[in-house]
């Protein structure tokens, strides 16, 4: 007695219908998936070739074949890897198997990014990244030039301090000449000391004044070079050729910045301030009487004390300029497009996203297929086999049964033939006739 067939619930019927519908969709998608995966792999290989070509310095046949071989290897590797994942990961039924293949997918994705994606980004945004490197270098040079010019101008401002000191000692010399300092009018010992220091400060003031045209000329030359470097950044043509001229201009600009740094008069003022009280040549006191000579000696001591105070004031002002941070030692270092893309990756996020997406887009397909296969299994699990058979499965089963029947019929016929041969053996053949005697 056969058992009654269990009727499916509404939920089971819905799950089975959904599973069959999803299987139909997957059957159609399987026809285009290999072609789509191949197109993605070839596109990645092309951009990888461009990225490798930008790194190789030689443009000969060997470099061409090396870049071509690498790009072909990348395309094949991407196609094979994602073909494995598209087939194997969605078919995993155990958690350990699914987790293991997921880890393998992540490791493989990182390997693809390491061998291909950064080269794709170099092909997509390599020239723009190199131009940004040039622009960053120009900004560094401009900052160094302005800083050197500012330090030189600050040192030029020391000329006002020197002028004040010269004017003060010049006024003291006039007072001494009129007899208001030592009490004796004329150009005696005190007057000669004051005149000596006035002339020293006047010479220092002239040296400072002579530096100003040189500073202005150097700063103007530096700005002209910066203008040329900015023009090279946006000029048409290959960025590699522009980089060569850019490097030449950067060497010139580095020399201008060094010259500006040397034009600063702060070290000169600092040394002059130290020598101001120490380099006094004391003249012989020429007073007619002892009282006059004592007055001259006392006045000279006061002058020396004033020189010491003025010297310390000038030295402090010069030290403030010398204590300023010197210009940054800027140098232009040429880099390849691949290095530029990595260094300035934050400025080229869209290019990096596109370069990575073209390689890792199949990962989305893998997990979409895994979710779909899980939904199909969820709709079919627990149902009797006769409910899950599709028309294709039924046709395949019928064809298999027909083949089995044909095979069995052939086997039976062969067996009957052998049995009949054993029961009724064939009659022996007649011997051949003997030849007649002569």
Automatic annotation (TrEMBL):
Compositional bias (Basic and acidic residues): 414-424
Lineage: Bacteria, Pseudomonadati, Pseudomonadota, Alphaproteobacteria, Rhodobacterales
Name of the molecule in the record: DUF4407 domain-containing protein
TM segment ranges: 26-50, 62-86, 98-119, 352-371
Biased composition (Pro residues): 425-438
Swiss-Prot/TrEMBL keywords: Membrane, Transmembrane, Transmembrane helix
Ranges in a coiled coil: none
Organism this protein belongs to: Thioclava electrotropha
Residue segments, region Disordered: 414-438
